Amino acid sequence: MPFRALARSCGLSMIFATGMLHAEDPTPVPASPPLAVAPGSAPSSPSLPSAPTPAPVATAPTVSIPTPPPSDPVAMKSADTAVTVPEAPAAGPPAPQDMQPPEFLACVGQQTKARWRQLYREQAPTPSSQRLRAAFTLGSLQGDAYLALQAGDSQRFRDNNQDVLNHCRVLGLAEKMSPDLMAEAKMAQTEDWAALRAKIGGTHKLTETLLQEQRDEDLAILVNLGMWMRLFEVASTLVVNDTEVQNKSLCVGSVHLLNELMARYERLTESTRQDPSVVLLGNVLQMLQKHWSNTDEAPPQETIEMTFEKLRFIMEKMK
Fold first, then answer.
1. Which residue, among 317, 315, 283, 318, has the nearest Cα to 119 in the 3D structure?
2. Angle 272-277-280 from CA coordinates, rounded to 5°
3. DSSP 284
4. Which residues contact 51 (CB under 8 A, 6 or more apart)?
5. Euclidean distance between CA atoms 280 and 314, whole angstroms
6. What is the pTM of this model?
7. Nearest one of 114, 87, 81, 85 to 103, comparing CA atoms
8. How much is the average pLDDT of 172-200?
């Protein structure tokens, strides 16, 4: 199943529809009817036409946004306390190269019995002094930020942002990243989920841009890989325990996305790929690519379990 089909199968155009209101066309003013003249009487002298009655001013109807169910991909607070989150606008299903983490998690939420808070990590990773591992873990924490956003969990999001900042310090990004992270924390505190949803992707891109400006292109790649591997770990945890899930490729997003991640890994410099922890990451990516490329995205349960185990393994090793 190509990745565009994945987006269509999740009904993303319906998920992210905003119900934007368009102003109504002005109501045309009907022409005044001719004056009636009694038979046999002379027509009266013409009089000035009366001013037309102004058309009623069009008012936008009130739209009620329903509270999403617990499995809603956009937001929830807990199974018994729902929070309404405005959905993000989208013109239609995104192309494979445009699929973003919130849209990926939306697919997962639509096709699995997702309870997002149960997927939090028990303990936040401690910043590593090794910059390669710190970059990968920073990306995984940005994946956790999307998870907290999906859960509509303000406190968890702010706690996770502090962990993100700690890892930014290791990479020399703290000063330039702090304003964006503080702005995100404020949005989470006020539960301005729509604004936060728009902001969080920009913050992730800023991380990669700053690293590239420091001539740390390898670190920028590892941040991106860390984010997606964490999201795959979340998805595979749901899929491996739910035999009713039809689209098993949610474990890796899609074969198309998995191939893209492998291509990014291969752009790492030779010296970086010789690092022991990065070698492990490459081995896991190659193994997943090998098993999923021949499954037509409908793998046996053994492949699902292997994927889940390998993702957990690499996330533990790269901390």
1. 315
2. 105
3. H
4. none
5. 7
6. 0.72
7. 87
8. 95
Which residue bears the tokens 């185990």? 309
Q: What is the tens place of the pLDDT at every residue in 129-159?
A: 999 999 999 999 999 999 999 999 999 999 9
Distance CA 108, CA 212 (A): 31
Q: How far is CA 47 from CA 34, 35, 44, 50, 51, in A?
A: 12, 10, 8, 9, 12
CB 116 within 8 A of CB 147: yes
Q: Classify the C-alpha dihedral 161-167-169-171 as positive or negative.
A: negative
- Return d(Cα 114, Cα 70) in angstroms, integer: 8
Read off the pLDDT of residues 280-312 as tens digits, 9 standing for 90 and up. 999 999 999 999 988 766 788 899 999 999 999
Nearest CA to 310 out of 291, 297, 293 is that of 291
* Rounded Cα gap, residues 228 and 140, in angstroms: 7
